[in-house]
Design brief:
Keywords: Lyase, NAD. This protein is α/β, with parallel strands linked by helices. It has a single domain (3-334), classed as NAD(P)-binding Rossmann-like Domain (Rossmann fold), CATH 3.40.50.720. It is 43% helix and 16% strand. The strands form 4 sheets. It has a 7-stranded parallel sheet with strand order 3-2-1-4-5-6-11, sandwiched between helices. The protein has a two-stranded parallel sheet with strand order 7-10. Strands 8-13 form a two-stranded parallel sheet. Helix 5 links the parallel strand 5 and strand 6. Helix 6 runs parallel beside helix 8 and helix 6 (190-199) packs across helix 10. The longest helix is centred in the N-terminal third of the chain and has 21 residues, at 94-114. The radius of gyration is 19 Å and the shape is globular. It starts with a strand and ends with a helix. It binds nicotinamide-adenine-dinucleotide (NAD) and thymidine-5'-diphospho-beta-D-xylose (TDX).
Length: 336
């Protein structure tokens, strides 16, 4: 039986991870430390509340006292908490540096002082962009070349994790995964933004020419990959985790969603491109396959359909999320 400190468990991937873990590892204890920023939502965890072994703590990973107190109490840290949206980091990167870099360092320091293991959840964006002309994929040996302030803050946090391992022998693992999709994803990210806009009768903003490629990973595949890393991963090792899509660009994703919702291409609105927009991400997950037995099991088209259905069935969830602070942000971005 383990006692796991999950940071950022009220966000998209963290809440799916807590649900995944509680159903597969009954008997384990989980403490969810989350600041509840605009992206954190306890509605994501209604089914976990009241389960034996689950406890929520409202707090900031940059608060050294809270971090040390909770790290001391647990066996293992699974670190999701982050500012996660590239567009926000382009507007102002301040919170990204505080949470993603300083917060990660405080967790590492506490893990070192209390001799705990830490798994750090990171992104393929640390490796920069691939071109459309090659078939190359990122792997664990790819050089870091982050291009957005978000990616730079995650790259800095990955370096810190490895530096604590190298210098102090801290027991760490890292997962660098591709774009996740699935239920409870905040509708500022492309897929849930597109679905919820269309359900509201609004157009979908497509940046630039729409020919940007992402390697879509269903969130449950990501949760299973983390489970495998915790079970079999080697300390000091990074694992690249990708999904089942071969090569699908944003326009193709939108067309699939439009078809699922029975709507036409007039709902696509080409808008100004994201500054510094990375053309393509693709992940080679062969190390995870070889060492952990990982392979993605959720087909993109099938789980895109299920994700669309989830947003159709859970309108009160996203209507609530799309109000307030998020609406103000959206209005300043798109003027509507
Ligand atoms: P999210 O934005 O949905 O959730 C982030 C959570 O962290 C929220 O609950 C928020 O309240 C919490 N948080 C933010 N700052 C905090 C702080 N200072 N203290 C405590 N809690 C804080 O993010 P997500 O999409 O679930 O991503 C989770 C992790 O996975 C992040 O580290 C992200 O970089 C990484 N990642 C995400 C994706 C993706 O496609 N979403 C892909 C690769 C890696
Ligand atoms: O309105 C939009 N229109 C659009 O064309 C939005 C929000 C996005 N896009 C494009 C930009 C990207 O090419 O869609 C693609 C996906 O965009 P995001 O959902 O913002 O994801 P991305 O920038 O690829 O980063 C995501 O994957 C890696 C997560 O947000 C990161 O947290 C993760 O590390």
């Amino acid at each position: 039986m383990s006692k796991i400190l999950v940071t950022g468990g009220a966000g998209f991937i963290g809440s799916n991870f807590i649900r995944y873990w509680l159903s597969r590892h009954p008997g384990d204890e989980m403490i969810n430390l989350d600041k509840l920023t605009y992206a954190g939502n306890l509605e994501n965890l209604k089914d976990a509340e009241g389960k034996p072994g689950y406890r929520f703590v409202l707090g900031d990973i940059t608060n050294v006292d809270i971090v040390r107190d909770l790290v001391r109490q647990c066996d293992l840290i699974v670190h999701f908490a982050a500012e996660s949206h590239v567009d926000r980091s382009i507007i102002d990167a301040g919170e990204f540096i505080k949470t993603n870099v300083v917060g990660t360092q405080l967790l590492l320091q506490a893990a070192k002082d209390f001799d705990k293991r830490m798994h750090h959840v990171s992104t393929d964006e640390v490796y920069g962009a691939l071109s459309l002309e090659t078939k190359k994929r990122f792997n664990e040996a790819s050089p870091f070349n982050p291009t957005s302030p978000y990616a730079a803050s995650k790259a800095a946090s990955d370096h810190l994790v490895m530096a604590y391992h190298h210098t102090h022998g801290l027991s760490v693992t890292i997962s660098n995964c591709s774009n996740n999709f699935g239920p409870y994803q905040f509708p500022e990210k492309f897929i849930p933004l597109a679905i919820t806009n269309l359900l509201e009768g609004k157009k979908v903003p497509v940046y630039g020419d729409g020919l940007y490629v992402r390697d879509w990973l269903y969130v449950d595949d990501h949760c299973r990959a983390i489970d495998l890393i915790l079970e079999k991963g080697q300390t000091g090792q990074t694992y690249c985790i990708g999904g089942m899509t071969k090569s699908v660009n944003n326009l193709a994703v939108i067309k699939k969603i439009l078809k699922l919702l029975g709507q036409g291409e007039e709902m696509i609105e080409f808008v100004k491109d994201r500054p510094g927009h990375d053309r393509r991400y693709a992940v080679d997950w062969s190390r995870a396959k070889k060492e952990l037995g990982y392979r993605p099991e959720h087909d993109f088209d099938e789980y895109l359909k299920q994700t669309v259905e989830w947003y159709q069935k859970n309108e009160p969830w996203w209507q609530n999320v799309k109000s307030g602070e998020y609406r103000e942000y959206y209005q300043t971005q798109y003027g509507k």
